[in-house]
């Protein structure tokens, strides 16, 4: 592509509400332009990148045996009433009335439409399994759209839906899709992790999120240094320490801690490490209070706590009045030693392995030192109730955990029979009996991937595209081409030669001075830059630089063509 | 593609409301499935064809120098208010309110959005000309959606918008697009004509429609046997006859025609040809009646008549009471001889060339015979006011006209400054002065093309795809493969060999009996069919048949591979 014939319009200033790097860079490069809140036009530059993502997603879905179709964006209310989601989906569902006052929505997802399609098309088990996918525009009426296309209202998604006679068959297809997703994100050149996800309200069984690693990610994920293990921090299991608890060696002693309440304050005051302290939290149980004990350097994981049999399905802190009434002590001085018998004491696996610990004195202004489980403090039950931290052993037994932040760009679910049952989507099995189909669903946020890739790959000068996503692989920058026929001709010749090899090359023939030209090429993130200059040509070379390196290298024509063939 | 891994679901019965062939065949083949009125899912089979159209459109737009982008489907009301179209567009505009009660529409077209994009992106004449296009989903809330995807509410369109400093530059791009459209429809393998169109309410200057020829088309078009000339019948000029009017040879004579009113009745009764009769129609002029005279075998063209200076911009028939009051005669007996002087007589070019004609007697129950212009009947003005008919001379002087029906699949317009002025889209010219940009717009109904192609290419057995649009080029049909290993292996081998040559091949491995298998393959319109059978293999051949031929031909492997390489 000759840049003079391509509409490129980079800008210097971006609105203050562009809070994250990808949003700022997509606006500065002109990849996107805002039309309305959460609604963006993809400029020619932006669309080139978006199309590359689309193509890779499509190729790998096809290779995995999924079949592409295209469902409408406008969906009738009646289908959504069959699953109860017309009401349950909430405010994100953009509801529409047509000129005849019939009710529709702009599809935020397509479970209803595909299940309707499937119940009409699929009559026999012989037609199964089948996996339909589409790459299509969706709309979710986010109450606070932000971060550009990262959380837009109108966005491009790949959604796939598979149909099966049995749960086993669904399991197999789930694995096929899991592997295909791995290939997609690998081919895109992104650092990512497939993490076990809490299926939450969507229902069904297995579920994995595909997370692109980036410091600005909204999700914290834990992954193993030595294996494929990865999970949302909320879901990652914290194993018991490998070393068993030591025998008590200290005597229990009450110490005055008149103003020290937090672990940091207490441990500093008493000269102990936080991990030798026990933190006790009182929460509401089915009837009465429940004590949760974790090590001073650990945090309660509320998702895990909510699942404890002693709790009513959620973890709610007791209020100060209730704590004082039941224990006679103010929060900050509560501990497991001498707690009323009515309060179950749930001790985290790591906390249970500590001997000679510090804990609250159950008397205002005091703590205990030299406390020990069993001898001084009751354990009702040991359980995994804390958040994992870096350095924890990986739950699969291989390596230790690291914590990183991620951006969710894909999600695979086993839906089971949820939608098929609600919409009566059945096929006849080999005995001629109608059976509800098993379903899987598999989403990829195509437009979001573009933003996530930038979050992961940028520097002060701009975007650093992974090659498979770059709008062009190589940029040719001629210096003073207007004044120098040789520079002009050599740049043209190189452009033609590389293009003829099927390489996507951008020739910057806008006639800009080197500074602004290089700034644009770096900003839009072209992986390889070749400068054609009078001085270089005199030496028979071009100046070559990779986007992620800081040094130029002189390279002659032959070597260049060899590198890019 | 192995058909067993592709979801194909043909059906026997289609709803009675599928009135036209393409609608019926798209439902029978399963290419589309209705989700709601005018809203369709494109099945895997349908999408394969739709994608082929998209790809050809995209390639030719790129080749013509247009630059692809992607605008949102949801557009804010404010932009539509700037052009006044929020109200003027009418009921087809699907209006939407989001959760914050802000008003939007689902874009039926993108002039507002692209003009807004352009006024923000384009600052200088140096950025011009530029032509932006997209292939994108649109919604028009048709009051009576029908004919399947031919007149759907949600549909896929390619829309392009070009921006220019001058009208000359717009003219040049218009020609570039006109040529690109010609290449697109030629590459798609369709019979089409580019016809001059009435720009109607859309405004601007030049405008051409691209019409796919098909008997079921809604538009009648006239085109030359010997040149590129083509125009909507409403627009085609009817030249004066090449031969001048003969001198009068008969005497004027009133004859009784007691019950004969129509041209057919009168000409049969008097033994004259319809072309020797003059038909006179009275319409409402600015004040009083105006007579329009055409030959008995011709029809008034209301579009042309409406443009006459004597008429108020529309052609409205006078009612019977008014005709009787002014002329003393009932309709059916009106003629140009002896009409009151207050009535201007506008005579069509062909009518003006007739001598010794029959016309109404301006007295109930009578006609004149042997009437002649000037001698017996006044001519206020000669004008082109009739519809062209087959055999008329082509207005460009080359050949004669033929009339065919067409389906509009593309439209190119010169919008001029209409939108740019309303939305204040200016650039600085080389003198630093702000100038309103000139715009062109260029649409192609991508999903409609699929239906139009079927209207043009089908028979009783199903669709007969032009090769460039076919879902696959070749189908391989093995007979009794389950029972015959050699058939199975040879079919597989042929499938692999042809696929390896980059040819799109469908292997029908569903295990159907020959009858249903052939019926499906013909129905879905695969251009080439190769049957692999025990008998054929014994003779060292396959049975080959083209979709549009009725005979099989024995062909050996070598010849086959040579034909498709």
Q: Note poorly predicted spans of chain A.
A: none
Query: How would you characterize the largest beta sheet of chain A?
Result: 9 strands, mixed
Largest interface: chains, residues each = A-B, 51 and 51 residues
Mean pLDDT of chain A: 95
Overall number of structural domains of chain A: 3
Keywords (chains A, B): Aminoacyl-tRNA synthetase, ATP-binding, Cytoplasm, Ligase, Nucleotide-binding, Protein biosynthesis
Catalytic activity (chains A, B): tRNA(Pro) + L-proline + ATP = L-prolyl-tRNA(Pro) + AMP + diphosphate
Main location (chains A, B): cytoplasm
Domain Aminoacyl-transfer RNA synthetases class-II family profile (chains A, B): 38-466
Could you outline the blueprint of secondary structure elements for this entry?
The structure is a homodimer of 565-residue chains.
Chain A (H helix, E strand, L loop, with lengths): L20 H8 L3 E5 L2 E4 L1 H20 L3 E2 L5 E3 H6 L2 H4 L5 E4 L5 E4 L4 H11 L8 E10 L14 E11 L2 H21 L4 E5 L10 E7 L5 E6 L5 E3 L20 E4 L6 H8 L7 E7 L4 E7 L6 H5 L13 H8 L17 E4 L8 E4 L5 E6 L9 E3 L17 E16 L1 H5 L3 E3 L5 E3 L1 E8 H11 L1 E2 L2 E2 L10 E5 L6 H16 L4 E3 L6 H10 L4 E5 L1 H5 L3 E5 L6 E3 L1 H7 L2
Parallel strand pairs in A: 3-7, 15-16, 16-19, 26-27, 26-28
Antiparallel strand pairs in A: 1-2, 4-6, 5-6, 7-8, 8-23, 9-10, 10-20, 11-12, 11-20, 13-18, 14-15, 17-18, 20-23, 21-22, 24-25, 28-29, 29-30
Helix pairs in contact in A: 1-11, 2-6, 2-11
Subcellular location (chains A, B): Cytoplasm
Protein name (chains A, B): Proline--tRNA ligase
Subunit structure (chains A, B): Homodimer.
């Amino acid at each position: 592509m000759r840049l003079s014939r391509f509409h490129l319009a980079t800008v210097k200033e971006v609105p203050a509400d562009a809070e994250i790097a990808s949003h700022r860079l997509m606006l500065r490069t002109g990849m996107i332009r805002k039309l309305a809140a959460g609604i963006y036009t993809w400029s020619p530059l932006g669309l080139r990148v978006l199309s590359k993502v689309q193509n890779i997603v499509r190729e790998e879905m096809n290779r995995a045996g999924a079949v592409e179709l295209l469902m409408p964006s406008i969906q009738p209310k009646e289908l959504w009433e069959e699953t109860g989601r017309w009401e349950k989906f909430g405010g994100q569902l953009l509801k529409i009335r047509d000129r005849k006052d019939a009710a529709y929505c702009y599809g935020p997802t397509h479970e209803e439409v595909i299940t309707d399609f499937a119940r009409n098309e699929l009559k026999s088990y012989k037609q199964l399994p089948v996996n339909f996918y589409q790459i299509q525009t969706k709309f979710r009426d986010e109450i606070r759209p932000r971060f550009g296309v990262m959380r837009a209202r109108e966005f491009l998604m790949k959604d796939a839906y598979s149909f099966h006679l049995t749960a086993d068959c669904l399991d197999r297809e789930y694995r096929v899709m899991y592997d295909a997703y791995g290939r997609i994100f690998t081919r895109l050149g992104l650092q990512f992790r497939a993490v076990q996800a809490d299926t939450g309200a969507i229902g069904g069984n297995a579920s994995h999120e595909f997370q692109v690693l980036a410091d600005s990610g909204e999700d914290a994920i834990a992954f193993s240094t030595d294996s494929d293990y990865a999970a949302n921090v909320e879901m990652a299991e914290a194993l018991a320490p490998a070393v068993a608890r030591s025998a008590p060696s200290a005597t229990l002693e009450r110490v005055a801690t008149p103003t020290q309440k937090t672990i940091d304050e207490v441990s500093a005051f008493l000269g102990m490490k936080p991990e030798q302290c026990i933190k006790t939290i009182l929460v509401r149980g089915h009837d009465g209070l429940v004590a949760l004990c974790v090590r001073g350097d650990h945090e309660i994981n509320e998702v895990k706590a909510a699942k404890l049999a002693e709790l009513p399905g959620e973890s709610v802190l007791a209020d100060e009045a209730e704590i004082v009434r039941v224990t006679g002590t103010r929060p900050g001085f509560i501990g497991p030693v001498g707690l009323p018998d009515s309060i179950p004491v749930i001790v985290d696996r790591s906390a249970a392995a500590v001997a000679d610990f510090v804990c609250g004195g159950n008397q205002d202004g005091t703590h205990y030192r030299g406390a020990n489980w069993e001898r001084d403090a009751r354990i009702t039950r040991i359980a995994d109730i804390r958040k994992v931290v870096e350095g924890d052993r990986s739950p699969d037994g291989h390596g230790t955990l690291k914590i990183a932040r991620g951006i969710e760009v894909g999600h695979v679910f086993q839906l089971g029979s949820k939608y098929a049952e609600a919409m009566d989507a059945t096929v006849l099995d080999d005995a001629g009996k109608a059976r509800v189909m098993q379903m899987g669903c598999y989403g990829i946020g195509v437009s979001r991937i573009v933003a996530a890739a930038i979050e992961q790959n940028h520097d002060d000068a701009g975007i650093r595209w992974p090659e498979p996503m770059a709008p062009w692989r190589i940029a040719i920058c001629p210096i003073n081409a207007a004044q120098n026929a040789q520079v002009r001709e050599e740049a043209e010749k190189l452009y033609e030669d590389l293009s003829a090899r099927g390489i996507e090359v951008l020739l910057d023939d806008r006639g800009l001075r080197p500074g602004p030209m290089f700034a644009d090429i770096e900003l839009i993130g072209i992986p390889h830059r070749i400068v054609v200059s009078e001085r270089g040509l005199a030496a028979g070379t071009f100046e070559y630089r990779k986007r992620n390196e800081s040094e130029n290298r002189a390279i002659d024509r032959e070597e260049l063509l060899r590198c890019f063939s």
